[in-house]
Amino acid sequence: MDEGNVAQQLKQMTDFIRLEAIEKAFEIEAAAAEEFQIEKLQLVEAEKKKIRQDYEKKEKQVDIKKKIEYSMQLNASRIEVLQAQDDLVKSMMDSARKELLYQSRDHQSYKKLLRILIVQSLLRLKESAVILRCRKEDLELVESVLESARNEYAEKENVYPPEIMVDRHVYLQPAPSHYKEHDLSCSGGVVMASQDGKIVFENTLDARLEVVFRKKLPEIRQSLIGQVAA
With pLDDT > 70 as the criterion, what percentage of the chain qualifies? Predict the structure, then answer.
């Protein structure tokens, strides 16, 4: 083989190696580019996912905030309605207490009422001897109906008339006064206790009014809803 042929074969081999190197370089470059694209897409998707999660989180926070604000406004409205209802109920109670004063000022009807209250108290305690307390200004009226009350109770229960001892040392609070609006007061009626003091029945006009209001309170509140809303 002459030198010319050797040189040509070497050139062919060199060209072949160079071509293979170029092709390999293209393959490596294409693979790197593809890997870069995949990694870039993954990063973009990850960032998008993070943005979506952040947005959803903020959206939830805004939604929760709105719900909290709405709940607070709703509670405030309910409190206002309840306060308005309480004010109306208190006003009704005050009006009813004023009516009680007129009841105790009419001596004839109040005397009859005292007898009824004493009989009711005796029926509740069912004791052979009791202690009775009343307002100092009612003492004379109470004593005037004691005998008839004792006999009425005895007839109803078919027992001997009980002994009723009027407490002349401790009286119930006096009637309400415009000059002493915040002082303790009693609109009338009686308080009866067993001799040992273990059983006490409060049968004052104020106590009966409280009982009636407690029983009627749901009905009263329901009827006041429309008035408050208006």
Answer: 92
